[in-house]
């Protein structure tokens, strides 16, 4: 019976090592990504609450005041800038679909996850489904800082 103790201790010590190496990663942020469908669905709710009053239900915007998100060349050509604008706000002159806007969108204080979700929603709605865009991830949003 005694001899069984040795392998048992060996196996146990393996577990202890495993546990220790795991705990060293405790300090890294835990990034749990959603699948695209879930992110789009959650982004729709964010859009209704935070964006719709200016960009309107179909993302059509108001010419000269609130730029459109529907088939917006700015959104499709400037992925990173678009994410930053939603995360930090956007001010100054921009041209969207040939129309000049010189207005101010203040930061809405969204979480990185809400930014990712609403980006996935607008990139996959209003006729923007044709844009060849990969999913905006929480990791991508978290990695961006204000210029
Ligand atoms: C108070 C009105 C307002 C709200 C609310 C608002 N925006 Fe904007 N948004 C603007 C304005 C104004 C601009 C253009 C700013 C400029 O002229 O530099 C803009 C620009 C943009 C742009 C880049 C230009 C384009 O049309 O492609 C994106 C993308 C965008 N907004 C997305 C969003 C999203 C997503 C939300 C909700 C989370 C949101 N906005 C909420 C007013 C608003």
Automatic annotation (TrEMBL):
It comes from Psychroflexus aurantiacus. GO terms for molecular function: electron transfer activity; heme binding; metal ion binding. Residues 38-126 form the Cytochrome c domain. This is Cytochrome c. InterPro entries: Cyt_c-like_dom, Cyt_c-like_dom_sf, Cytochrome_c-type_DH. The keyword Heme applies. Gene3D superfamilies: Cytochrome c-like domain (1.10.760.10). Keywords: Heme, Iron, Metal-binding. Transmembrane segments: none annotated. It comes from the Bacteria. The lineage of its organism: Bacteria, Pseudomonadati, Bacteroidota, Flavobacteriia, Flavobacteriales.
